[in-house]
Each structure stands twice: as C-alpha cells, then as structure tokens.
User: Fold BTB/POZ domain-containing protein KCTD7 from Seriola lalandi dorsalis.
Amino acid sequence: MQQNGSSGSNGSDGCSRERQSLSFSPLPAATTRVRRFIQERRTLPLPRVMVVFSAAGDTEKPSDAMSSSDSAEDDFRKPASPSPNLTLSKPLRSPLHTQEQEFPEVISLNVGGMYFTTRLSTLRRYEDTMLAAMFSGRHYIPRDAEGRYFIDRDGAYFGDILNFLREGELPHRDRVRAVHREAQYYAIGPLLDSLEEIQPLTGEKVRQAFLDLLPYYKDNLERIVEIAKLRAMQKKARFAKLKICVYKEEMPITPYERPLFNSLRFERSDSEAKLFEHHCEVDVSFGPWEAVADVYDLLHCIVSDLAERGITAEQQCIGVCDKHLINHYYCKRPIYEFKITWW
Assistant:
C-alpha cells in the first residue's frame, strides 16, 4: 500500500511538473495592452515612427524595436541629437574660385566704332585709372564680332589718350578741351594735371576765379537766354534785345564823390544804405564786385559764354540809370543793350 501510495504521490508530482511545463508565461505589457483594446472594441492608435541617426558601424538590435509605447513616446519627445561619431567626409558645396581674366600682350580695341591697337602695358601705365581697372583682369569686358574689346565711348579723341599714355604727348590747343573731357571720363589724373597747365585751360582757371566773385553769374546767364528766346518767339523775330546793367561799385556815387574815395566800398550807416537800395529798370543785373577786372571784362565773359552755346550776342552801352536817390545822388549805373540773334 505504501508502495502504491508512494507511487501515487509520485504520479501526482509528475502531473504537477507537466502542468508547470505546459503553463504559459505572462504576456508582455504591450501584448496585454493590445488585448485590452480588442476586448473594448476600440481602434488601435497609429504607431509613431522615430528616426534615429547613428554612425555607419552602429546597427539597431531587434529587441530595441519592441520597446513599450510609453518609453517610445518619451523618446519621441526628446530632440534627436546627432551622434558624436557622425562626421562629414565632404563639404556640401565646394567654394567657387574666380580666376582673373588674362589678356594678350597686344590689345585690339573698338572704341565707339573706331579701331585701335596698343600694348597691354600702355593701358595699365597708371594704376588709378579706368583703363587700368578695366584691363586688370577683375572685370568683364565685352567683345565685338571680330574679338576686339569694346568700349562704349566716342573714339574721336581716344587716340590722344593713347598718345599721352605711350609717351606723354599732349594734344593740340584746339583739341585740349575735348581731350580734357575724355581724360575726366577715364580718370587719368596725370593727363588732367598736364592739360590744366596749358592754354586754354589755364586762362579758364583765371577767369573762373573772377567769376566766383559773382555766385549768381550762371543763373543770370540762363535768364538772358530764356528772356531772349521768349521775346523772339512772341514777336516771331530773328533776334531779341535785352537791357542789362553791369556795375562794379557797391554803392552809387556821383562824379563829385569819386576823387574823395580810394576804395570801392563806402562807410555809411544802415539807414543811409537803405536810401540807395533800388533796382534798375533792366532785364538782368550784374554787380557789384571787388577785383581788378572791370565791367568790360565781365561783358567779355557774358558774350564768350553765350558763344560757347552757339548763341550770337552783340552788346553796346546805351546810357546810365538816371534814377534820383537822395539830394544830389543818382544811380549812374551803366546799362547795355544785348542783341541776341537766333538764326
């Protein structure tokens, strides 16, 4: 009996071992969560995808992919940081290397349709010039159909520019003004300095020093042109006449006062000065000024500047202003008639 009992107990122990071997291990948390959603007939949430950058040698283990949703959500909220082992072998963009343009030793030029040939060293003779900058290799210069470098400028005086760059030759007097304008355009300082030391530019500098005493000179010159044009158009005439007052003294005087004063200015009180303030009945008035140059010098400037514009002007004195001021004082400013001919 004992043997049977022992055998029975042994049998029961064997059955218990079999049950333990056949028993299932508890489900993971993720599986249990899925079953709960199925029982409650709710839709499963969409999975979230997390991208993690890693070095080429690092591989993700399969067990890491089966982590819980809670830990996945926590990882998703954390900002992804690049791996310290991740390095870029090549830059994203290679830097651009600009090469300076190279020129031949002999340069063929097309300046406004006129052709010139010169050495590259001639164009680069003075560094601080427009030509030296153009042919430094840092700027693009267009070419014509024949391959000549093109400069969009009148080439009538470009030969004079090259002659100065080659051997310092200056132009003839009748070309000085035009070459001076071209030298200003090409910013050739040594040529500008040389031209300003010869006629007619030297005389122009002296004349301009005198005209600077009359800051209204250019405005009055414009008024003469406008008034003459308007009168000629109104009368349908070939010419127009204007009255212009040109006086040098600051205060009006009489012939009896002139020997008593050696200077051009007079010391008078403000109240006395107002008694002499008036405007002569003329179209345009020039004066006063203090200089050695007199009225005839200014008249010459007016006629010359009008001729520079292609306007023919003739002038003659037709008298003086006889306006009485006070006591024995009269204006006595000379008045000139200008005849402007349009054709």
User: Anything to note?
Assistant: The beta strands are 106-111, 114-119, 149-151, 239-246, 284-286, 312-320, 324-326, 329-330, 334-341. DSSP finds 13 helices and nine strands in the chain.
